[in-house]
Specification:
By secondary structure, the chain is of the alpha+beta class. Helices cover 51% and strands 13% of the residues. It is built from 6 helices and 4 strands. Strands 1-2-3-4 form a 4-stranded antiparallel beta sheet. A hairpin with a 2-residue loop joins β3 and β4. α2 crosses α4, α3 runs antiparallel to α6 and α4 crosses α5. It is globular.
Length: 166
């Protein structure tokens, strides 16, 4: 389940809950909350995740985005957001995931972080991690996409790069 789906489900009233109440905790899906890990658990990526990463990187490259350059990632994401707003698009999931992978790949190339699949109380996502330091790029992009925020990539991702390279 993607972040947008989890946020939509979290904001939906449950039976027996008063209208207008927003859940503060994520929807655990079919898993009982007691079965979800309190701390992130990760596994190495497999062929399916590698293919997903390669496909997203190829699309970004075809759009002229250089994932080695935060300015290029930022400009591409900002262009995609403006274009999406002008089209009144509803196909944001692909854009968010593509740029999340671009940011994740930038972190992999410039820090000690490596691709992994992480499961925590919020669900299972493609992430970059080293030890107990975990970044879920789709969360970085999705939250800012919902706020229609632009220009954030160099500052936020640059800070992570700086932290990991100290």
């Amino acid at each position: 389940m993607g972040l947008f789906d989890r946020l939509k489900n979290a904001a939906s009233p449950r039976s027996g809950e008063p209208e207008g109440r927003v859940r503060a905790l994520p929807d655990p899906g079919d898993a009982p909350v007691r079965d979800l890990p309190l701390t992130p658990e990760s596994r190495r990526i497999g062929d399916e995740e590698r293919a997903r990463i390669a496909e997203a990187l190829a699309v970004l490259e075809s759009e002229g985005v250089d994932v080695g350059d935060l300015g290029s990632i930022a400009a591409g994401l900002d262009r995609a957001l403006v274009d999406w707003q002008q089209r009144h698009g509803d196909d944001h999931d692909g854009i968010v995931q593509r740029y999340a992978i671009g940011i994740g790949e930038h972190l992999v190339r410039t820090t000690d972080l490596a691709w992994s699949v992480v499961t925590d109380v919020f669900g299972t996502d493609l992430a970059v991690s080293a030890g107990d330091f975990v970044v879920v790029p789709s969360n970085l992009v999705a939250v800012r996409w919902m706020r229609r925020e632009t220009g954030w990539v160099p500052r936020v991702v640059g800070h992570i790069v700086e932290l990991r390279n100290r």
